[in-house]
Amino acid sequence: MVSSTSTNGVSKGCATKKLNSELRKPHKVLGVEFAPINIPLERRKQTLAVLTWTALFFFSGPGGPVILVYTFFFTRLWPLSLLYAIWIVYDRNTCNVGSRKNGTITKFFKNWVLWKYYVRYFPIKLVKTAELDPKRNYLLASHPHGILASGTFASFSTEANKVSTVFPNIQFNMLTLPLNFYLPIYRELCLGHGLCSAKKESMNYLLSHPDGGRGAVLVPGGAQESLESHPGKYVVQLKKRKGFVKVALQNGSPLVPIYCFGENDIYDQVNNPDGSLLRGFQNKVMELFTFAPLFFTGRGIFQYNYGILPRRHPIFVVVGAPIDVEKVESPTNDQIDSLHSKYMQALQNLFDKHKSEFAHSDAQLKII
After folding, report:
1. Cis ω on the peptide bond leading into residue 79 (within 30° of 0)?
2. pLDDT in tens, 108-122
3. How far apart are the first and last CA of the chain?
4. Are strands 296-297 and 268-269 parallel, antiparallel or unpaired?
5. What span, in angstroms and rounded, lies between the C-alpha atoms of 59 and 19?
6. Residue 5: is its pLDDT beyond 80?
7. Residue 52, CA atoms < 13 Å, CB-side half-sphere
8. For residue 58, is it left (φ>0), alpha (ψ between -120 and 50) or beta?
């Protein structure tokens, strides 16, 4: 009797484990891979966090102006819309003078619990390879842009990876398109996370802080580099990007190379080689509006084949050693070219040193 009961218990246990295993396996229907039913709560929270931020990123930008106009013309809340429009005009220069101060609102945004689950989703890891002196101001250049610059944003505009502990006494401000600060609602998200305009005057403000301790984080490749974002590719737009080098020279700010391994692997993008009709269209739009129309796909909420959510893939944000820069208020072209070449070599060395650990030994960085 005891033996029989024990055997039944084992059988039931095995059956339960088998059922749970089956429920956790993706299921294919007509070639589409659907998420399993029995997903751990932790992973559900991670997906929800990524869904929340992706929706805010893609829809609050174009949605903000629509909401503002609709509220003004078609509701009794038009006085609030008018006041907010006045506030945007009044507050228009904040993005050029260090963004929002590190007050309650900024701390709330940067420590938002959403970010904890967001970085675990991929996951995103911040890798420190050298110390940064908090008495200096730094210009950090991050590559590649990818579709969303997810690794750079999560690492330096949030506290999810405890950047203030990794690099103590340094306040980091990520730089982005000036256009973003004219979009209602979306601009508040940017400023709440400490983002600043990528204008020269904004960079000079950050890098001229008299007590040091500021880090301006730029993605030099910008929109043009996002067009090169394809899984398994390591392409950065840098050979003609020298403006940030000139700013570093003028301020005597050390340059810090950053490479985000895995950034290009979280989305697929429609093939758009140079010379193609699609690339020509993308370049034309980018010339007119400063941003590139991207045709990409990731995964959905309940299936893994299509959608705007990024795919789960590790992103390693590797921060290199600072390149010391002597201040030259009016640098010559030769001085700019010399420092630019030195920076490109430092980025190449950083990539080669860590590619075996965070990508694969055969990975080749292509600088164009």
Report:
1. no
2. 999 999 999 999 999
3. 76
4. antiparallel
5. 39
6. no
7. 15
8. alpha
Token couple for 126: 């911040």
pTM for this predicted structure: 0.90
Structure tokens at 95: 């993005």
Query: Tokens in use for 294?
Result: 């991207």
Q: Which structure tokens are listed for 166?
A: 């990794």
Strands 315-319 and 255-261: antiparallel
**Tens of pLDDT, residues 120-149:** 999 999 999 999 999 999 999 999 999 999
Written in H, E and C, the secondary structure of 238-307 is CCCCCHHHHHHHHHCCCEEEEEEECHHHCCEECCCCCCCHHHHHHHHHHHHHCCCCCCEECECCCECCCC
Instruction: Tell me whether the omega of the peptide bond preceding residue 36 falls within 30 degrees of 0, making it cis.
Output: no
Tens-digit pLDDT profile for residues 296-307: 999 999 999 999
SS (H, E, C) the chain: CHHHHHHHHHHHHHHHHHHHHHHCCCEEECCEEECCCCCCHHHHHHHHHHHHHHHHHHHHHHHHHHHHHHHHHHCCCHHHHHHHHHHHHHCCCHHHCCCCCCCHHHHHHHCCHHHHHHHHHCCEEEEECCCCCCCCCEEEEEECCCCCCHHHHHHHCCCCCCHHHHCCCCEEEEEECHHHHHCCCHHHHHHHCCCEECCHHHHHHHHCCCCCCEEEEECCCHHHHHCCCCCCCCEECCCCCCHHHHHHHHHCCCEEEEEEECHHHCCEECCCCCCCHHHHHHHHHHHHHCCCCCCEECECCCECCCCCECCCCCEEEEECCCECCCCCCCCCHHHHHHHHHHHHHHHHHHHHHHHHHHCCCCCCCEEC
The length of the chain in residues reads: 368
With beta carbons less than 8 A apart as the criterion, state whether 142 and 217 touch.
Answer: yes
